[in-house]
Amino acid sequence: MGTRLLSRFIGPVLMNTRILPNLTHESKKIVYAGANCTTIRNYAKSKDRGKDRKDKGGKVEINPAMMSELVPVDKLKGRCQNAIEKMKDDFAKNLSLRSTTGAIDTLRIRYDGKDYELQELAQIVRKNPKTIVINFSSFPQVIPDVLKAIHSSGLNLNPQQDGTTLYVPVPKVTKEHREALAKSAKALYINCRDAIKDIQNDYIKKNKKQTSVSEDLVFTVNKQIIALCEEYLNEAKKIYETKHNELLNK
Questions:
Q1: What is the sign of the dihedral through the CA atoms of 145, 243, 89 and 167?
Q2: Which is higher by pLDDT, 7 or 136?
Q3: 17-26, 152-161, 214-223: least confident range
Q4: Is 39 a residue whose pLDDT tops 60?
Q5: CA 39 → CA 22, 29, 42, 43, distances in Å?
Q6: Cα 72 from Cα 54, distance rounded (Å)
Q7: CA distance 138 to 136
Q8: Average pLDDT over residues 191-220
Q9: What's the CA gap between 114 and 116, in Å, rounded?
Q10: Please, what sign has the CA dihedral across residues 139, 140, 145, 148?
């Protein structure tokens, strides 16, 4: 008797059960029993919701045509590329494992408010494989500035002065020398990285001051500027890491 009554009650309920499709993060099971309606919600798991949010924040697509509405794209790229070329040039001049005459020749000297290459101020001769001789007989007043530049160059040189002549012993390639050069390489890389970030921030700040275009366009272009500069930052980092490993003989 009790079993028959229970089946009479449950049967109509099951026959009127409908499953609605999962349209968002939840599915709804609606159970109809006569005039009464019960909704059961099955929520998505938290990790699934996080996955959905992650999918929405994909890689920024760089659209030069759109960027050009607010930014001189070629100029932006040129400035970033120049920062990388300067770093590469500094690597070549200042981070030689063997301090060659060529590296000394092009050493930048700041004198009387102007920049000069050392070869413009003195006569440079490689006396033997272990010694470089720099003669300042025609311009002796620049010697203090040259000594300052040599000591801060990262070339690990210790010049000895005799009157108007500097004798520069060429150091052996020791572990300490390699580590000193690697440290200098990192400093030059950081200078390049900061220069690119300054370029990025310069254009972003200018865009934010725009009043004749929509905020959506400014927001989108600024995101693309960041993405574009990130490509140059990654390139600079790869060049630095290659040089760093070379200097440490990895």
A1: positive
A2: 136
A3: 17-26
A4: no
A5: 14, 6, 10, 13
A6: 32
A7: 5
A8: 96
A9: 7
A10: positive
**Over the range 138-156, which residues count as b (16 or more CB within 10 Å of their CB) and which as e?**
ebeebbeebeebbeebbbb
Q: Supply the pLDDT for residue 68.
A: 94
Pairing of strands 114-117, 123-128: unpaired
Contacts of the segment 47-55: beta carbons below 8 A, 24+ positions apart: 49/25, 52/25
Mean pLDDT of 56-63: 79
Residue that the structure tokens 């000591």 belong to: 151
Q: State pLDDT tens for residues 69-103.
A: 999 999 999 999 999 999 999 998 778 766 555 67
Q: How many residues does the chain have?
A: 250
Q: According to DSSP H, which parts of the chain are helical?
A: 2-15, 46-56, 64-67, 73-94, 101-105, 118-121, 143-151, 175-208, 215-247
d(CA 136, CA 40): 91
> Taking Cα atoms as reference points, which of 115, 112, 118, 96 lies closest to residue 166?
118
> Distance between CA atoms of 118 and 136, rounded to whole angstroms?
10
